[in-house]
Amino acid sequence: MKTTGKIFLALALLVAAGCAQQEKKAEGKTDRPNIIFILSDDHAFQAISAYGGRLVQTPNIDRIAREGAIFRNALVGNSICGPSRATLLTGKYSHINGYMMNEEKFDVSQELFPRILQQNNYQTAWIGKWHLGSLPEGFDYWRILPGQGHYYNPDFIEKGGDTTRVPGYVSNLVTGFSINWLEKRDTTKPFFLVVGHKATHREWLPDLQDLGVYDSIQFPLPANFRDDYKNRVAAQHQDMTIAKTMRLKEDLKVHLDYSKGPVYSRFDSAQLKAFREYYEGKVSKEFDQQHLSGDALLQWKYQRYLKDYLATARSLDRNIGELLDYLDKTGLSKNTVVIYASDQGFYLGEHGWFDKRFIYEESLRTPFVIRYPGVIQPGTSIPQLMVNIDWAPTMLDIAGVEVPQEIQGRSFLPLIKGDTQNWRKAAYYHYYEFPQPHHVYPHFGIRTEKFTLARFYDQADTWELYDLEKDPGEVNNVYGQKAYAQVTDSLKQQLQSLVKEYKDTAAERILER
Ligand code: CA
Fold first, then answer.
1. How many angstroms separate the alpha carbon of residue 369 from the centre of ligand 1?
2. 3-state SS, residue 253
């Protein structure tokens, strides 16, 4: 009797364990990974050492790349802030999700993939920069910066709460709030968290501890720094050069008036003291002593621009490290996918520019690294063309959720696992915002492995073609040259079919002209 009783008990325990396991599976508690998407603003791949950046070290972004995968050709469909975020949320190009230019109001009633994650038992949160005109939908929790937000002592709006001004530096606050949320979350569910950074957006304010950190470094000029824009109408008419557009006072902080404007009036006395000591006591003083003009002034501006920009990026990178450390400490690293991306690339003096917008490499491409323990082999490098329309479907794929047909991108998980067949050979791009700011003519085009073909329209009715192998700096527009006639025909056909596939009727009409 005794033995029979033991067997019965053992069987009962097994059945109970089996039931519990089934229940857990049904609720998706155990086997679906968490996802953290760290999204910065205007962070150039040239400024990241994992991309072979010529400038500084970014050890924490590099760590994600080293422990996971780096996308060498991650592109955006429309190289400005809001539209890139709208594409992240929808998996669609701007002409479909309706958010084509900054400072419009994003329609949050449309299908957003975080809402689909919610319906599939994920907790969702967006913390930090949002900047889409409307308030977030599809998130269990959000705490965002109104508009562009501020670097120091920024305001935050919290879901179900008020707008409050929080003392501190924005990258540290966004990281701290993210960790707070992780601490308080419902641990029975997997989560999707966007950590939205303001850095490294203009006006490039570093954390106090990073002020002047790169002052001893003389940064090299990009090869095409003195671009003459020959044969390129749009490049001739832009308003985004370091020489003319970049402002000594507001951008480079020479003789700032700290009592005026929304940025510095919110500083506390310690912050004001540190800024005055550095920008007034050192930077402005050096500037006054040198009596710069012409090319010397241009080079000084370039050096100052990079020093501020890269110091701001350093504050950002340190915060990414803090989040990674937290995940290690809590054991979350094991079952959490971590992504670092920027909303688009940025010019660090290439073509003589700052800002973004053009289909040219530095703004078309964006940094994108992803760590997915057990799925992505550490040290993976992906050369294929990935576009930000692929971000949403990949998140759904990671969560094991079916991707709705209307999403225009594709999950890149198969690609990352080595299945490169049937992956896209050409990527589509369409930029709209004109004339303000920066006066970049609207254009659409395609990028293949070797070429970029662009159609500028409205005021600039022109084509441009770049042979990226021969001309990586994109200073020779070879459109119309005999040697490229065949290539051009083929690229135009590919462009036409992409325009159709993505239902860009405005571009279709322009091609028919
Ligand atoms: Ca941006």
1. 17
2. coil
Closest CA to 56 of 310, 387, 339: 310
The SS3 call for residue 504 is coil
**343, 238 Cβ separation under 8 angstroms:** no
Stretch 106-120: mean pLDDT, rounded?
Answer: 98
Cα 65 to ligand 1 centroid, rounded to whole Å: 21
- What are the phi and psi torsion angles at 374 (to 5°)? 85, -15
Handedness of CA 176, 129, 40, 203 (dihedral sign): negative
Alpha-carbon distance of 179 to 464, in angstroms, equals 46
Ligand 1 centroid to Cα of residue 98, in Å, is: 18
Residue 492 burial class via C-beta count within 10 angstroms: exposed 0-12, middle 13-18, buried 19 and up: middle
| Per-residue model confidence as pLDDT tens digits over 217-254 | 999 999 999 999 999 999 999 999 999 999 999 999 99
The pTM score is 0.94
CA distance 357 to 498: 20
DSSP string computed for 224-280? TTT---TT-HHHHH---BTTTTS-TTTTT-TT--TTSHHHHTT--HHHHHHHIIIII
Report which residue type is found at 286.
E
